[in-house]
């Protein structure tokens, strides 16, 4: 039996299911390659079977593949045709495998004429079987046999596999006869899916055809319902594992929600159920429209382009579109910057819009499948379907004849319901919200096909705006209905300003989601607080929200507070302008409009004040109160701030931020009410001390009294109770040991951090020394709290970014860092030696933030405030605090904040005499010195033109 070698995928056979017309000749010369291999065999005394011949074959193939892939990449860089690139790579792989197989049979084993039992078909399965490969893709092969394996077949398979492995390919393989394939495909959905996507690379055509015929009749026939359920369940599990949102700012292009695997699943289901071979066939059947077919093709080509570029850039199978890759891929795909949006942000917006299209296509196909399955069948099953239909038949919705309830989902009563009355495009969401209904896929499909009806007239329609406001302020689950509205495209068209930020990412490690996803999550947080679901996490906000009369104001502000992101001007100011235009349209009066616009413009003020200012400084409170002006505004801003921070991403919110916000609120409240407050500062201080004393009930009364006198009032007012208890336990143990220096390590898997507490005698260089030890250990400080105590000691609490997944490993790392801290503070080691032993760790090259140093004497009556902003890196806090110590600045309080890749560190300082820094020359010197430390990690400060601080102000305190 002669074998058939497939040189490229243009040589398709009539019954092939994946006919891919690709001309491979510009990339690899299959005839020339075979001829050169034949010469190697002819020159070999063993006819090509010797080790020397194998080495020559390997060298020739390696060079051929390198050149072919180079040509494919060059062509890809010119046309950015992702699907074509994937098909070309697969076609080249075909040539390589077919040529090796041919060479092995003819020359290595000398068996050109095969017996019936020696027949074999080498079949590409899985992704390779679809006729597509990324540069780093695995190669999945099925060696198909008519009966059991023969000696010759085993030799050919072994020769081929070892050559492919030596060429650097990752090969997944199985050797089976047809009976085994059918048996395993029946039992295992993964194997069934891989055989569903198959392609004959080389070998016996009749054997391959037999597999196809038996697979269709014995596996696929009558099992589509089970296959669909399995694939959708698999898809849901994969989404849950990767965050269950398509709007993560570092998406997984292959496995993530809206990625290539979702498109694959969509086509697997369609191919299995409708017995189609191409997406075009789905359009011919009427399952999807021509427009939706173009959407499928566009999404597939774009996602393949991104994936192939990622593999080419990294030289490996990298599937996560990380921050450091995004600028490079954006450049390769030809994106340019626009005012307010970087080129990378425009690229990622396009990516997320494509991911949204993939979700839309999935829902459209599922609707078609559901409709088909709903049709009654003859016989017994038909009776069952009829009974089921009667039980879940359409129910009326009071007040409308345009919609009805279909199995607890809202559905349209006619295909012209939106054309007849465009207000129904908003009313449908209001009815679903008020009746707590899901959305029938047919309804969403018709909505998407009716979006052109949303025009200026509908946007100005009073009833439509009133209905929208009802959805936004729904008391049950507004986020769910707004999300469906956004996914259907209605929200972005009804509010065009919102449409501009749909799928928009912010190129920042701090923001985990796209802007529209962040806004919807903000609404969800507000609704959950209002429903009392977050009382434990947010006791004050949960109490305040019950007294809020302006619900509409709070919900509108939550929805639009970031609506002006991506513009050249400050998004808060531009957003306030949007609010003043949008609110009257939604039916808000002048007072409500003013409130919303103020909230949008100042939505960051409370979080910045709490985290970056000394809220125990009276000037801070007075300035903040001047900005807020009324208690009503303070209440609204407090709730909005909490919802906003929680919606940034996992782990961004923590108890410390909550305590800071509550303290800022309680310090500001009496200023706004003329002294009338729910509790005075003295009462809050007393209550805090009493709560801590109650938690220390096992201590003796004398111990408790002595300990409570150690801390200054600000400690009790700004530190969460649970942390106070942990600090008390640590300080008590350290004091009983008699050691002047003590450390303790704690890990937090949920927040992804490691905490180190340090108790030591206070001195001006303490924080600098501790930070230096952390830098010497290669640890990055994400946050730091400094508490001085009345007995001359200081408690410094450091929050470090986690390095290891396992707690045991992270605890060992923490103890090692603690050892560095003790050695440095005890004079047993030096910062210079510790730092010199560390390899420099630079932040991702994708991010660049010009350092900024500002010195302000108006923010505090007692202290000079030094605010430093720039690109975060390990050792930054050590460098900055060391520079301040060298400049003889006494740090009275430090406020360390990290927003992804950006660090914002604020220090309240005085000179060594306890006065503000007022000299212009010294201010310039401080700015120059600190800027230098930002731009030159670990270096010594500049000395040219700068007089050492010691010569002016004397030596630093020990």
UniProtKB/TrEMBL annotation:
Domain HD: 515-631
Protein name as annotated: Bifunctional uridylyltransferase/uridylyl-removing enzyme
Coiled-coil segments: none
Keyword Magnesium assigned: yes
Domain remark from Swiss-Prot or TrEMBL: Has four distinct domains: an N-terminal nucleotidyltransferase (NT) domain responsible for UTase activity, a central HD domain that encodes UR activity, and two C-terminal ACT domains that seem to have a role in glutamine sensing.
UniProt keyword terms in alphabetical order: Hydrolase, Magnesium, Multifunctional enzyme, Nucleotidyltransferase, Repeat, Transferase
SMART domains noted in UniProt: HDc
Cofactors that this protein relies on: Mg(2+)
This enzyme's EC code(s): 2.7.7.59, 3.1.4.-
Metal-binding is among the record's keywords: no
Reactions listed under catalytic activity: [protein-PII]-L-tyrosine + UTP = [protein-PII]-uridylyl-L-tyrosine + diphosphate; [protein-PII]-uridylyl-L-tyrosine + H2O = [protein-PII]-L-tyrosine + UMP + H(+)
Transmembrane region(s): none
Top-level lineage group: Bacteria
